[in-house]
Specification:
Blueprint: E1 5-9, H1 14-25, E2 29-36, H2 42-56, E3 60-64, H3 66-82, H4 89-108, E4 113-115, E5 120-125, E6 128-133, H5 150-154, E7 156-157, H6 165-174, H7 194-200, E8 208-212, E9 217-221, E10 244-249, E11 254-258, E12 264-275, E13 284-289, E14 297-303, E15 309-318, E16 325-330, E17 333-340, H8 343-349
Parallel strand pairs: 1-2, 1-4, 2-3, 4-7, 8-11
Antiparallel strand pairs: 5-6, 8-9, 10-11, 12-15, 12-17, 13-14, 13-16, 14-15, 16-17
Helix pairs in contact: 1-6, 3-4
């Protein structure tokens, strides 16, 4: 076996810590790297990652990415919300920050490969490497890695991808490491909650209309960013049957509501299409996942414009949210992804 220098992106949590331990067990030289990010609990994270790196007896290097993270991830997040769309900052961060700038820093420190604690695996097809679903389907994070390109995938290890979360806790306990109550949250910078965070970014309440699909004004909202497609609670619209958010119009500052059956659609338009390797011939048919906890569904992808494509599903899908990512799978392999278009973009493409 070739002994490699492997940089492990460490957060102080069980997954990244055990990733470092597993890589070392494979006989590689392990170096821990910690990203300094603009997070409210940064000092606590730093203390924790120093502790576990010390317990594993591996060197730890700090990489200051606060400015880049603010510009590229938080800037994207707030702008997308203001536009009435649903962002996915973790997908954006993985491509631009963790497997982008952090990986570059690791290479500059002499690392041959990068490893993380993601619950994903590397799969192969026709001699090429692809991100693949993790063994623990409840924790599978392949969706969040869909924007990685072929060069990034070529240099990655996912040591915990063949394990379950329970096994990781058991192995950690066997090493004398304890992580009770340290489960990481979905979006690292939202520890204070979305309203408080956006208020700190200068995004306050902005009253607007709650309207039906046919244009009837039914009530008032306090800002489109407070709502998500499929939301039922907090609308203040008593009726014989519940109302749901079925659309967001950021330009006109309107929240569009409808009944449950209006949440379903059998197609959507996407843009910013990106494949891990060369594009397949269209129409492409496979499984498409529309959000991190969505059950991937069979669909067909066809071109409808110069920079727009249409996804047609075999069966209608619930709460398709513009701004989110549609991720394309062949069995367990991530082949590519695209951004779900807003209704106005979809109408122009038809």
């Amino acid at each position: 076996m070739v002994r490699l220098k492997v940089g492990v992106a460490m957060s102080g949590g069980v997954d990244s810590t055990m990733a470092a331990s597993l890589v070392r067990e494979q006989g590689h030289e392990v170096h821990g790297f910690f990203m300094l990010l603009p997070l409210p609990d940064l000092d606590a994270q730093l203390a924790r990652v120093r502790q576990v790196a010390g317990q594993l007896a591996i060197p730890l290097t700090l990489i200051d990415l606060r400015r880049h993270f603010t510009d590229q991830v938080i800037g994207y997040f707030t702008a997308t919300y203001q536009a009435g769309l649903t962002p996915n900052p973790c997908i954006h961060c993985n491509h631009a920050i963790k497997f982008g700038l952090l990986a570059e820093a690791m290479r500059s420190h002499g690392m041959d490969r990068i490893a993380t604690g993601h619950y994903a695996r590397i799969g192969h097809r026709h001699g090429r490497r692809f991100v693949a679903r993790g063994t623990d389907r409840r924790k599978d994070q392949s969706y969040f890695l869909a924007r990685l390109d072929a060069e990034q995938v070529e240099r990655i290890f996912f040591p915990v991808g063949d394990w379950t979360k329970e096994h990781m806790y058991e192995r950690a306990a066997g090493l004398g490491l304890r992580f009770e109550g340290q489960e990481s949250q979905d979006v690292c910078f939202l520890a204070t909650g979305l309203p408080v965070f956006l208020s700190a970014q200068g995004i306050g309440e902005r009253a607007g209309a709650l309207i039906s699909r046919d244009g009837r004004r039914l009530g008032e909202h306090r800002g489109v960013w407070q709502y998500t497609i499929g939301q039922r609670r907090g609308l203040g619209l008593p009726d014989a049957t519940p109302w749901y958010v079925v659309g967001l119009d950021g330009a006109a500052n309107r929240v569009i509501v409808g009944k449950h059956d209006e949440l379903f659609a059998d197609r959507c338009v996407v843009h910013s299409l990106r494949w891990t390797h060369e594009p397949p011939e269209l129409p492409w048919r496979g499984l498409v996942q529309l959000r991190s906890r969505h059950q991937a569904a069979p669909a067909e992808l066809t071109a409808v414009g110069a920079d727009t494509w249409q996804l047609a599903f075999v069966s209608p899908q619930r709460a398709i949210a513009p701004g989110q990512f549609a991720v394309f799978y062949e069995d367990d392999l991530v082949l590519g992804s695209a951004v779900i278009a807003a209704d106005t973009e979809a109408e122009r493409a038809r």
